[in-house]
Design a protein that fits this description.
By secondary structure, this protein is mainly alpha-helical. The protein contains seven helices and no strands.
């Protein structure tokens, strides 16, 4: 029988958390260095700015105007968006994790943050949730939405605004909210 701490190679849960934080910071620093290339900065800044909402609002408008049953999909996305916003704001105010560029001098902010704290990534949370809902209604949108969602998620780390774990948590929360929404529809 395994002892509970036998699951952790370093011994204690605190050691594991410290190890994950170290890996998180090193990966963030390494990815952020790619901003030295001008095209990388432009690409990820554009993805991040579109992920602020503009892309999703344009998609919803297009669905309303062009898609059969577009109103149902847009209403579903709107409801999911409200729950996502409330969830990530509550979590950010509860965890108070500072953004990487505020903690690590080697991380250069590639864009202005929307708020002070980093956990979880609201951009990623919304992108994953909206993608899952939109693709459930219109599966062909996956070819457009998956690459965009991945760009938005990556942009948050590359721009020095989030740690990789912030992005992973945002993706998991967004997927959970979108998934749960299908039981209510």
């Amino acid at each position: 029988m395994l002892r509970p701490n036998a699951l952790f190679a370093r011994g204690t849960l605190g050691d594991v958390v410290a190890h994950v934080r170290g890996v998180d910071a090193r990966l963030c620093i390494r990815l952020n260095r790619s901003l030295r290339r001008r095209w990388v900065l432009r690409l990820f800044r554009a993805a991040s700015q579109l992920g602020d909402g503009l892309f999703w609002y344009a998609l919803m408008l297009a669905l309303l105007l062009l898609a059969r049953d577009g109103a149902a999909a847009v209403l579903h996305m709107t409801c999911v968006g409200v729950v996502c916003t409330a969830s990530y704001k509550l979590l950010k105010q509860s965890t108070l994790r500072l953004r990487p560029y505020r903690v690590h001098g080697e991380v250069a902010p590639g864009a202005a943050p929307l708020d002070t704290y980093s956990f979880p990534s609201g951009h990623t949370l919304h992108a994953v949730a909206f993608t899952l809902v939109a693709v459930a209604y219109y599966p062909l949108l996956l070819a457009l939405l998956l690459p965009f969602t991945l760009l938005v998620a990556a942009s948050r780390v590359v721009l020095g605004l989030h740690y990789p774990t912030d992005v992973l948590a945002g993706a998991a929360i967004g997927a959970a909210i979108a998934g749960a929404s299908f039981f209510l529809v």
